[in-house]
Amino acid sequence: MTDLHEPSVANDVVDELRSWLSDNWDADLTVAQWWEMLGVAGWSAPTLPTHAFGRGVARAVAVQISQEIAAFGAMGAPEGLGLMLAAPTIAEHGTDEQIATFVRDIVTGQKAWCQLFSEPGAGSDLAGLSTRAEQDGDEWIVNGQKVWTSGGHVADMGMLLARTNPDAPKHQGISYFGIDMHQPGVEVRPLKELTGQAIFNEVFLTDARVATASLIGGRNNGWAVANTTLGHERASLGSGGTTRGGSAVPGTIGGNLSRRAGDFAPTPAASTKGSGRSSGSRGGAMYDVIVGIAKGNGKSQDALVRQDLVRLYSLSEIGRVSAERVKAARAAGTDIAGMANIAKLSMSMIVRLTRDLGLRVVGNQGMLHGYDQAEREVVASATGNPFLNAVTNTALYAQAPPIYGGTDQIQRNIIGERVLGLPKEPGNERDTPFSQLPKNA
User: CB atoms < 10 A from the CB of 378, how many?
Assistant: First the structure.
């Protein structure tokens, strides 16, 4: 049996990719045409199994693949939650028909996805969700509200968790659907953040419909399916990202499918191959920005600043090494319990330290922030610091990572209960029908 984790096999895969890129990359293709070729060939999401438009390779090899695409100067795979969360979940729990439709549209960038999990009364306690789905022939009628929906305003499809049996215990009466966001009864309202952006949304579902054929993983089995999604989410958030080079928002709302693929392609020099840290790493790009500012304004002479710079670098390196440990364990057919949760906690620590350290380094200038391009140019001109907005934007955004993808408190609970074997919170909610549980308690 071929082991796609072995370095020699990984080299063969990368060599195949280089040959494929030489034969197929054409900057004058449309984004839709390029993504169709990239996705069907298995290069968009190479960690997916081969029967689900992937290559079945380890994450380390997938990182090499994305770096090679960027180094070649070709446009990268589609961005977003479809590739990160929906595709691997459907590949594991979906039917052949669902893989052929949903996953294919994801890897080829035809459809963008969002995650309809959290609710106003069910955030940390996700299993307490109250959005209902009631069967009506071959369809389900959905009513409820979701919140903190990343990318909901540009999504074609949603990963929907809804209660399909209120008389079962709360973890047992949930189902997981792929729902069409372009239908009457689905209203998306953007939520403006401290940064001035609005990547999160609230979504109102009023008699929205979803076909039984879009029920993923079986009726009332949604909690198990959701945990697969959450596992991929925490691993992705804690990994520091991968290098995809130039890419774009997929789907019909993003407006990129008819554009020229070459307009999104990076130059080979822009590739971060061999840098040791991906450009998405919180301890990578922002660390370099803060170090540069500190050297420029003399704050690098402050012993406490130097100490925290070393701490930030160390945390990032620990995260990188931990990710390598996980890769090695999986290559050996094992895993390290709780590492996805630990990685998520580590990311929260890194982003908070980056916030605090960045503001200390820029001093009073940290009170200035540009919320659009014109304001950013004014701030940069007034302060003489073109990197100031990166620091203040990170500081404003830093409150989000410890919350989204499961709060820090939830990660600690999971580690305590599932890894360390500590007792669960007392209560009978796992055996009591959801309809009989007290609400807002």
Answer: 12
Going through 117-230 in order, the beta strands assigned E by DSSP cover 132-136, 139-146, 157-163, 174-180, 186-191, 200-211, 215-216
Residue written as tokens 């925290």?
A: 308
The span from the CA of 73 to the CA of 67, in Å, is: 10
Helices 303-331 and 339-362 cross at an angle (nearest 10°) of: 160
Q: In this structure, how many other beta carbons lie within 10 angstroms of the beta carbon of residue 373?
A: 9
CATH of domain 7-110+233-261: 1.10.540
| Residues 150-203: tens digit of each pLDDT | 999 999 999 999 999 999 999 999 999 999 999 999 999 999 888 888 889 999
The label of the residue with tokens 């999986």 reads 330
CATH code of the domain made up of 113-221? 2.40.110.10
C-alpha closest to that of 159 among 186, 178, 146, 134: 178
Sequence-separated (6 or more) residues with CB below 8 Å from residue 373: none
Evaluated on CA atoms 272, 273, 278, 284, the torsion sign reads negative
Q: Which amino acid is at 12?
A: D
CB 117 within 8 A of CB 226: yes
The dihedral sign for the CA sequence 31, 242, 20, 331: negative
The 10 Å CB-count burial string (b at 16+, else e) for 155-188 is bbbbbbbbbbbeebbbbbbbbbbbbbbeeeebeb
Domain ranges in the chain are 7-110+233-261, 113-221, 281-406
| pTM: predicted TM-score of the whole model, two decimal places | 0.82
